[in-house]
Inverse folding.
């Protein structure tokens, strides 16, 4: 029984790390520019396709994952420059634009790539034993990579000049501008970083799950639950909530019912909104 | 003078032949058939090939001179509406077709979510509807729905032949069922459980997962430790492939799979890692055709669509044969508009096209199917005579 609980917990942590990566992009953009970017899931989907096609052509998942990360970083920066910069200060316009982007990107992808699901060959396959536990090799690799990316992103925010500028801007855009932070550049950077994280998450998703033009909806829904659960704008909250959601889904599906999988996240979200209205770590007090 | 008279007489005969009553009988006008289906969105994988099949049949009928009914020849036209894989859009699309008074027969929709509103509206409007989705079995045959037909076999019909083949091919004794939590699954679980029981196969665990699930690891762990030798894994290709792949990843699970879906695609990549995979081909096996009719159809399909045959192409046969069967019924009834008369002829007919198909007296499809098998690295199909 204990072994089963441990195994189920590890399943939850593995998928939770992916959720956290997606939620980071959403929470960062909201924290900085006040836009709930619903089209973030489409960056995950496009990243997955980039990885899939590059892997198919080059037979290297790693080349595919790196290109997916870079391509979605550029895509994020372009979106900021072409679209979201014009909706700054108008959250409803930003929301409407991001909803429109979902329809456009999703249908263009369906027309271009066909709706057929595609499965990519993972870089490692099979399972390995860790003491009494049997772990999936690819899931373990995803956990290591996503944890490293989340940790790296955390260090980037804490230690680099741009990271500090992002943190300053998240506290006060005007204040940051007054002390010399180039807010336009930082805004673009944060869309690029959020996009790159989504691209990397897409590549990791593709190594585990089916790639379809409509796959963006799942990580997006989870990303929003996590961002709200962790407190919109709170990076540590998003990371913790990602793992929490992964664990809730995993234990719920294993010991309760798999037919209610998405419901577990919403139950936690509702409880959090009732009892922790500013998120797990109180986004209003401690942001980024 | 006589020569001129002869020429005049000859011209008169030609003119009479061209423009007289006999010629007029050859140009009866246009028969419009409605098609509603998900041409975009996640269900388009089913409905796009289904639409191609219908267009192909219509092109072949028109190419061979047109639809001949009651001494008249009609050109057939397809009026197509996109359901976008959404029930509300499907309802609007159905309404659009219903607003065209010249459309007396509508075909289309292979998935239940957009299919139910279409079938319901067609039944209410008393317009003949031939669909393919599973939930249509709950609509066909109900009082007032005499013009509703399902062009594919019901689970009860297929399962009777499918289960013995599965048990024989895979040598099953104890299986678990992992299927989506929806009406379709609940219907077929009820149909299959007693048949496996009769065949001496135990089913100690049945689990329903949330539709759209991508991560099956936690629910698959429920199937570990039961001593199972097979898994019955639902009906959708993405789910089936994800379950096979993730089952192999986490280990300690059976490697024989029974698939209620219609394609071997979910198992192809894993053929050397699994012990067997059996699926239903509700139309005909296009991947390894043994029948000359099927081979000829594949050539015509490629020429018509300029596409290669892929895993989902066999859905094209759902309405391809239905169009020909309908034209035969119209011919037998001597009308293109009297739907009750056409429906009566359809229900009493066996059509031997690329598929061999018929409808029972309620309108449920009763057709021969193929059963696909992947075993020991080989792929083959077994014809199942249902009719």
């Amino acid at each position: 029984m204990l072994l089963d609980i441990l195994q189920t917990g590890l399943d939850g942590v593995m998928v939770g790390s992916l959720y956290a990566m997606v939620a980071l992009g959403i929470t960062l953009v909201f924290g900085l520019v006040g836009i709930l970017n619903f089209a973030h899931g489409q960056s995950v989907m496009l990243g997955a396709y980039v990885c899939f096609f590059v892997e198919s052509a080059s037979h290297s998942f790693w080349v595919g994952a790196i290109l997916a990360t870079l391509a979605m970083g550029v895509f994020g920066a372009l979106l900021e420059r072409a679209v979201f910069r014009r909706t700054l200060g108008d959250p409803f316009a930003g929301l409407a634009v991001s909803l429109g982007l979902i329809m456009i990107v999703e249908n263009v992808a369906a027309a271009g790539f066909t709706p057929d699901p595609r499965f990519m060959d993972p870089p490692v396959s099979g399972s390995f034993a860790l003491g009494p536990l049997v772990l999936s090799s690819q899931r373990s690799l995803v956990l290591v990579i996503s944890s490293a990316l989340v940790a790296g992103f955390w260090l980037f925010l804490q230690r680099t000049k741009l990271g500090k500028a992002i943190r300053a801007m998240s506290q006060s855009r005007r204040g940051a501008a007054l002390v010399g932070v180039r807010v336009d550049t930082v805004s673009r950077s944060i869309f690029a970083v959020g996009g790159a994280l989504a691209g990397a998450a897409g590549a990791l998703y593709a190594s585990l799950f089916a790639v379809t033009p409509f796959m963006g909806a799942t990580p997006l829904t989870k990303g929003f639950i996590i961002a709200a659960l962790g407190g919109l704008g709170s990076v540590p909250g998003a990371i913790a909530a990602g793992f929490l959601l992964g664990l809730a889904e995993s234990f719920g599906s294993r010991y309760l019912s798999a037919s209610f999988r998405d419901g577990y996240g919403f139950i936690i979200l509702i409880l959090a909104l009732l009892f922790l209205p500013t998120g797990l770590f109180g986004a209003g007090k401690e942001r980024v | 003078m006589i020569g001129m008279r002869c020429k005049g007489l000859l011209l008169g005969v030609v003119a009479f032949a061209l423009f007289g009553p006999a010629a007029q009988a050859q140009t009866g006008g246009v028969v419009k058939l409605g098609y509603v289906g998900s041409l975009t969105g996640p269900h388009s994988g089913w409905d796009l090939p289904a639409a191609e099949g219908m267009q192909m049949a219509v092109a072949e009928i028109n190419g061979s001179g047109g639809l001949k009914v009651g001494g008249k020849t009609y050109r057939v036209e397809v009026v197509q509406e996109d359901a976008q894989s959404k029930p509300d859009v499907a309802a609007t699309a159905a309404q659009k077709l219903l607003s065209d008074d010249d459309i007396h027969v509508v075909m289309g929709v292979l998935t239940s979510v957009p299919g139910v509103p279409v079938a319901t509206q067609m039944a209410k409007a008393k317009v003949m509807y031939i669909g393919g989705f599973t939930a249509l079995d709950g609509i066909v045959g109900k009082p007032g729905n005499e013009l509703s037909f399902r062009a594919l076999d019901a689970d009860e019909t297929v399962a009777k032949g499918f289960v013995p083949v599965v048990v024989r091919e895979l040598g099953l004794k104890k299986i678990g069922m992992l299927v989506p939590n929806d009406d379709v699954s609940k219907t077929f679980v009820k149909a299959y459980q007693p048949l496996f029981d009769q065949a001496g196969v135990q089913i100690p665990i049945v689990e329903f997962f949330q539709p759209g699930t991508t991560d099956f690891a936690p629910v698959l762990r429920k199937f570990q430790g039961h001593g199972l030798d097979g898994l019955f894994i639902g009906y959708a290709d993405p789910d089936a492939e994800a379950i096979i792949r993730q089952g192999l990843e986490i280990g300690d699970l059976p490697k024989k799979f029974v698939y209620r879906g219609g394609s071997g695609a979910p198992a192809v990549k894993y053929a050397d890692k699994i012990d067997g995979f059996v699926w239903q081909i509700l139309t005909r096996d296009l991947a390894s055709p043994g029948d000359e009719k099927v081979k000829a159809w594949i050539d015509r399909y490629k020429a018509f669509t300029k596409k290669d045959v892929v895993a989902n192409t066999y859905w094209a046969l759902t309405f391809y044969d239905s169009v020909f069967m309908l034209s035969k019924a119209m011919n037998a009834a001597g009308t293109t508009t009297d739907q009750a008369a056409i429906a009566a002829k359809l229900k009493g007919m066996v059509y031997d096209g690329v598929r061999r198909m018929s409808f029972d007296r309620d309108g449920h499809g009763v057709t021969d199917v193929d059963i696909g098998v992947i075993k020991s690295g080989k792929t083959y199909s077994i014809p199942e005579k249902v009719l």
In short: Chain B has 13 helices and 16 strands.
